[in-house]
Amino acid sequence: MNKARYVLVVVAFTLTALLYLDRIAISVASEDVISAFQLTDKQFGWVLSIFALGYALFQAPSGAMADKWGPRKMLAIFVIGWSIFTFLTGFAWGFVSLLVIRFLFGMTEAGAFPTFARAIYSWLPAGERALAQGINLSGSRLGAAFALPFVAWLVNASGWRESFIILCIAGVVWAVCWYIWFRDDPADHKSISKEELKIIVDGRHSNVVSAENTPENELTLRSGNMWLLMVQYFASNFTNFFALTWLFPYLKKTYGLDAVTTGMLAAAPLIAGALANWVSGAVVDYLYRRGWGIWSRRVPAMTGFILSAIGMFGCMNADSATTSVIWLCLAVFGADLTVPASWAYCIDIAGKKSGLVSGKMNMAGNLGSFVTSLAFPYLMAAFSSSAPFFIAAMVFSLVAAVCWFCMNAGKRGTHKA
């Protein structure tokens, strides 16, 4: 039987890979960009972080827009928007113009994950959502891993400005294909059979907690549960964004590597993160179908944060590029174990408001990214060592594990918490 809902997961994977290919390109081109505009490391840190700030601030608004006007229209608009600003990155003429363009690039990219969370609520039953999110989010890691050596080659072959123009074209093509294929209501999609539609509709509401019965104040910033959700995602992104931004220049400068070798090494933690998303998604859904309720989300997430703290400790004490990358693989694997559980939890409690709630969570996560982009160069300058940064990441991960233990949505669910 044709299962169109699984095609949605594949489409989500391709978008996420493209999103991170566009996002990480500037990190790979860092030497050329710094040279072109005569930037200091701290200024380039602001170029990286200003993206994260725009991305964070527009998460909740973009999620609310997806809830109101539907994922089909809004995702096409978001993808075309960030593709335009990818194009304009290649035409920046100085530090200030680069800051403005990257901030707007972040704002338009912000809609991707909240919009897909809303699409997944409509198209997938609750018992399939975590794995779907894991596959979707693994695209971010594999896209970034592919981007590191690919963009290094592309920049060398065509120039850093031209590489951003090429990436823009790919995004516009994707947006057009999405708008032609997707429908907000699966009942309106000609490829979905009556049998599949029944599976989707019957399994739409989660047994972790009924989103239809979730009090409105549990979805706002007045909720302690919402703050716990946001804090733990801040911690996850604090570790992950280092691998996406500063790891490449850190390895290259610290160990005196060439660009392509650095790209290959720096890709390894991202591949580990992709694997973690698949593993975590499968485990979360398996435990959910066995009646574990909130623990189906809690166990993978708490395990992941503990592993992440161990990995960052090892990375802090590494004495070679290879050893450093091995430990960081463990750290990123752990951080990404937490991600499918986080997104599944958002859909559990929010239902038709999944775009808004997941946007709030992702906003906090990307404030973590914003902090990471600045914390690394500033702490390095202050202490002449990367150790304070790695210690901060360890502490955030351990605090996040406690947050998951305290998150209490399961108390309102039909399964035992």
CATH topology: Growth Hormone, Chain: A
In terms of quaternary structure, the protein is single chain
Compute the average pLDDT.
Answer: 85
- Percent helix range: over 70%
Task: Give the number of DSSP strands.
Answer: 0
Rounded to the nearest angstrom, the distance between the terminal CA atoms is 36 Å
Structural class: mainly alpha
CATH homologous group name = MFS general substrate transporter like domains
How are the SSEs ordered, and which strands pair?
Elements: H1 4-28, H2 30-37, H3 41-57, H4 59-69, H5 71-89, H6 95-109, H7 112-123, H8 129-158, H9 160-181, H10 194-202, H11 224-244, H12 247-255, H13 259-289, H14 295-316, H15 321-350, H16 354-383, H17 387-406
Summed up:
Helices cover 79% and strands 0% of the residues. It has 417 residues and is an all-alpha fold. It has one domain (4-412): Growth Hormone, Chain: A (Up-down Bundle), CATH 1.20.1250.20.
What tags apply to this protein structure?
mainly alpha; globular; disordered C terminus; 417 residues
